[in-house]
Specification:
By secondary structure, the chain is α+β, with helices and mostly antiparallel strands. The chain folds into 2 domains: about 5-125, Rossmann fold (3-Layer(aba) Sandwich), CATH 3.40.50.2300; about 135-345, no CATH class. The protein contains 9 helices and 20 strands. The strands form 4 sheets. It has an 8-stranded antiparallel β-sheet. A 5-stranded parallel β-sheet has the order 2-1-3-4-8, with helices on both faces. A 5-stranded antiparallel β-sheet has the order 7-9-15-16-17. The longest helix has 16 residues, at about 5-20. The protein is globular and about 55 Å long. It binds fe (ii) ion. The site of fe (ii) ion (FE2) has 5 residues, from loops. It comes from Pseudonocardia kunmingensis. This is 2,5-dihydroxypyridine 5,6-dioxygenase. Keywords: Dioxygenase, Metal-binding, Oxidoreductase. GO terms for molecular function: dioxygenase activity; metal ion binding.
Length: about 350
Amino acid sequence: MFELAGAEVGELFAKEFELCALNSKENVVVLAESASRPDYVAAAFGAAQRHGAAVATVTLPAGSPVPLPSVRTGTGYGLVSLDSNRPVLDLLKAADFVMDLTMEGFIHAPVMSEILSAGTRILYACEPPEILARNMSTPDDKREAQAAVRRIADASTMTVTSAAGTHLTADLTDSHPGYQCGFTDDPGRWDHWPSKMVLCWPDNEHVSGKLVLEPNDIIFPFKSYVESAVELTIEAGRIVSIHGGREASMLEGFFADSADPDARFTSHMGWGLQKSADWWSMAMYDKESVMGMDGRCAAGNFLISTGPHPFKDRHTPYHLDIPLRGCSVSLDGVPVTVDGKLAGADAS
Ligand SMILES: [Fe+2]
């Protein structure tokens, strides 16, 4: 039996590390937990060596904190076992590059900013290999995502509309625009492979309107396509009413059961730039094997989320990411997406 799958995954990681500008003077830590994909750990280890870097693997005990499950959700705190393991934390801070192959990553974990502040760059990956391969980035992706960030930074207001009835406005003053581009080649920067999206964190006080989810929009971390329309009314960044079918009662139940008033506030919002993303791929995988980056960063989507807001010191774990397919997003009246398709500079 040939280990061809392993060889192909090795090539993918080698190519990805090239994008990350990994070089022979750098120290790499491949971070795993006991449930991580062993082929990814081997591939990352081998790819780091191919680039001449000094490499070590670290495997931490698995397990996620309550109250939410934490397996490729995009919401969790990541491994709690890192929080109490100072030697490993110090190792990650001393490394130039961390390949994070844990099940959840540290997207919303306070510990991540401590590692990044030390200058370490972190790349997180957890999608199946064919999704990584299909959405492999190019250096242009970073430039284009940064250009989209500048468009948000230069604008005062984001307006989102749709034929289904969405009409939402967000004041962009101090909205901290950012991006993901699928690789990281700058010290102290985190990114997610695969990804290409732009987002910002408007102040809740200035987000208001109506958000209408249509059938086949997606709700994360449930990883489910909407079946019947949901209408959410948002006032001063807080969801004050939810109407619709099954998903409406699901969302209402989620917010009510959280017993966390912060869960109902808006969080980050932006739009997807990944043209190779496949909106429907999630229908072909079991829920635990994907995080759903295809839907989260699909070109032309409008992604809005709820719960945490680091710039308002709000750290609730009750975080929903909701990409919508049929919205038109404009910045100070200039469209960046029209009916779910990229417009303007991003369209070409
Ligand atoms: Fe999110």
